[in-house]
Amino acid sequence: MNIIIFGEMGSGKSTVANYLRDTYGYSKFAFGSKIHSECRMHGSETRTEMQLYGQSMRKIFGINIWCDYVYNQSLGCNKIVIEDGRQLNEYDYYVKLGYLPVGVVTEDSKRIVRLKKRVDYLVDPNTFNHETEIQARVCINKCKIKIYNNSDDQKDLIKEIEDKLGKYLRGGI
To answer: Which domain, by its residues, includes 10?
Structure first.
């Protein structure tokens, strides 16, 4: 069962994906990996700059540029988790391919605290209402499976993952 994780910034998408990789042998991919490397190569470090770059490339090369990139990167892998779903086209693209969409839900106050702890991350309050974050909320609402990540205890998140995804991860569905 391939999985695409949707969530707002700082919600814990990567933490969930890392757990699936480390515990169940999933291959982990991200739309943002190419965006981050391209932006850093040109000295752009802020989330705002990365959002602008990602959206600009969608306008120039087509809305599915990042979906196609990750799809091509993941060819040949058996169990795939995409850790950074945020946009409706990503939801539609991967659901059509049979991926299980999973939403990670976290209170805003928890997300802000987590983002401020990131050494390499500059928190710009305007990014909370960027179109990618607004679309992420819509995608999360479309997900039938939601993982709630409001605890500071990693054990609580692991229990939530197992409770919500265990039957899928162990081949029961």
So the answer is: 3-29+79-165
